[in-house]
Amino acid sequence: MDISRTIRGISISGVQTGDKTENIKDDLNRHLHTTLAKDFYVATERDYYMALANTIWERLSTRWLRTQQQQYLSDRKRVYYLSLEFYMGRSLSNAILNLGISDSVQEALYDLGLSLEDLEEYESDAGLGNGGLGRLAACFLDSMVNLNLAATGYGIRYDYGVFAQALRDGWQIEEPDDWLRYGNPWERQRQELATPVHFYGHVQVDHEGRRRWVDCHTLFAVPYDTPIPGYMTNTCNTLRLWACRAPRNFDFSIFNTGDYINVS
């Protein structure tokens, strides 16, 4: 059902987010209590980081949506940049700088007894690559958004895109860097756009000449969108990364026999 024909009074123009110190303080306090369901007695510094990230996200999202609407309505030519890596760096400090609200955020946090430098340390570096290829891709996205080009980056949402180094018994070892263990407040999952990806199998032709891909292994590619803001510009482009997910097929007949390993 297309409910867009019946919806009234819903518009991004009705969303107001102020950039003054008091606005930042009020929104951070609101997100701590309503989005995270934490209060002063149990909140950790990581919770305050998440509350601040959601506060900044609100301001990013309005710019992001307006950019998408403007690009769609003007039917502009678009650039799609594909890369195996996107070394974007940390999003919090970049978003605050590009939105031009550094002073307001610093003052708001000072009034609340918090430090931006301390909160920034709770953001994990996105494990999406650490070589020159990833840095180059990030620079391209930054350049295109600052030139007000309608551009989208496409890549892979790695769970373990980089590794962490540690010393054990005097030896350097590599360990998985689980950068998503606490979630990523800067992305939004687009489950409705999940796409099946088939491997192996063969093409079967029926009696009417129609072809079907059968006996294949299927995985799902699920997109996650991240806004890429420009510096002191209203343009905010998109980085879309695809995560790999197994199909959710659950066979109760197998489950009931006790074969829990092969149930899905």
From TrEMBL:
Catalytic activity: [(1->4)-alpha-D-glucosyl](n) + phosphate = [(1->4)-alpha-D-glucosyl](n-1) + alpha-D-glucose 1-phosphate
Cofactor annotation: pyridoxal 5'-phosphate
Keywords attached to this entry: Carbohydrate metabolism, Glycosyltransferase, Pyridoxal phosphate, Transferase
InterPro entries: Glyco_trans_35
Gene Ontology CC terms: cytoplasm
EC number: 2.4.1.1
GO MF term list: glycogen phosphorylase activity; pyridoxal phosphate binding
Top EC category: transferase
BP term (GO), one: glycogen catabolic process
Similarity remark: Belongs to the glycogen phosphorylase family.
Assembly behavior: Homodimer; enzymatically active. Interacts with PPP1R3B; recruits the phosphatase PP1 which dephosphorylates and inactivates PYGL/glycogen phosphorylase.
Functional note: Allosteric enzyme that catalyzes the rate-limiting step in glycogen catabolism, the phosphorolytic cleavage of glycogen to produce glucose-1-phosphate, and plays a central role in maintaining cellular and organismal glucose homeostasis.
Official protein name in the record: Alpha-1,4 glucan phosphorylase
